[in-house]
Amino acid sequence: MRQVFPRSALSLLLGTLAGSVPLSAQEAAAIAPVVPAASEPTTPTIPRWYAGVAVDIGRPTGAFRRNVGQAAGATAHVRLRIDPYGLLSLRFEGGYLNYGHESQRTCLANTPACRVAVNVTTANGILSAGIGPELSLPLGPVRVSAHGVVGASRLSTFSGLGGGLLPDFVAADEHFGDGGFAWRTGAGLSVPVHRGVAFDLSVSYQGHGQRDYLIKGGVTDNADGTLDLDVKRSTANVLAWHMGFTAPLTRKPKP
Question: For residue range 20-52, what is the model confidence (pLDDT) as tens digits?
Fold first, then answer.
């Protein structure tokens, strides 16, 4: 009598035989767990060029303070990032610091009757420009920086039409000026406010060396049309505080 082999037993035998056959490399790769590749470190993508402006309040130091009171002005700068992280930059800056001015009403033409009266402003100030390195370090969202700049400056007294701290440069004439080497060192912090724009607070010390200069009231009009100049000489160094904004000039580079 023929005995029928149970179907369940046959299936078990075939499964055991199949498991004993080694898998091919392709089949093993198909069932092997997928291990994600380690992510490579990325370089920070920050803009390369920045520009900023600031309002300045200056306090003359040393002998300069005996002749001059407080000063006020503005500074503009452009910064070129050197390394990918923005730790080292090249800084270009220029500014004007007014340390005295006066205005008077006068006639536009030398006529018997004053047909056109205008304001004439005489301003005393320091024009400066320079270049140098800037180091910065991020501390959370705030960035702390320090810079040093060398360049040139000119202490100048000029008069022109208009009122306020500065006359109209188109119709202005310089009475006296003294230029030379200048340097500046400073430190500050930047706080981001919106889309790369940062609010800046900083302090700097400006060295201009020994200079000849005029102060407020240093130009006197004589009856014969000539001018008398009361020239002072001393060191002309200034401690200044700056408040302004910096913004990127270019978009972030692609990573």
Answer: 445 455 554 455 555 555 555 555 568 899 999
The tokens describing 175, both together, are 């009475």
Comparing CA positions, the residue from 207, 228, 225 lying closest to residue 217 is: 228
Give the integer Cα–Cα distance in Å for 86 and 137. 8
- In three state form, how does the secondary structure of 15-26 look? HHHHHHCCCCHH
HEC sequence for 91-148: EEEEEEEEEEEEEEEEECCCCCCCCCEEEEEEEEEEEEEEEEEEEEEEECCEEEEEEE
Lowest mean pLDDT among 19-28, 134-143, 187-196, 198-207: 19-28
Q: What is the pLDDT of residues 114-146, one digit of tens each?
A: 777 777 888 899 999 999 999 999 998 899 999
Query: Rounded CA gap, 140 and 121, in Å?
Result: 47
**DSSP state, residue 2:** P
Angle among Cα 135, 197, 45 to the nearest 5 degrees reads 65
Q: Which of 160-164, 209-213, 238-242 has the lowest mean pLDDT?
A: 160-164
Rounded distance, CA 151 to CA 130, Å? Answer: 4
What CA–CA distance (Å, rounded) separates 133 from 186? Answer: 11
Domain spans in the chain, listed from the N-terminal domain onward? 48-248
Candidates 3.90.320.10, 2.40.160.20, 3.40.50.720, 3.30.420.40; CATH matching 48-248: 2.40.160.20
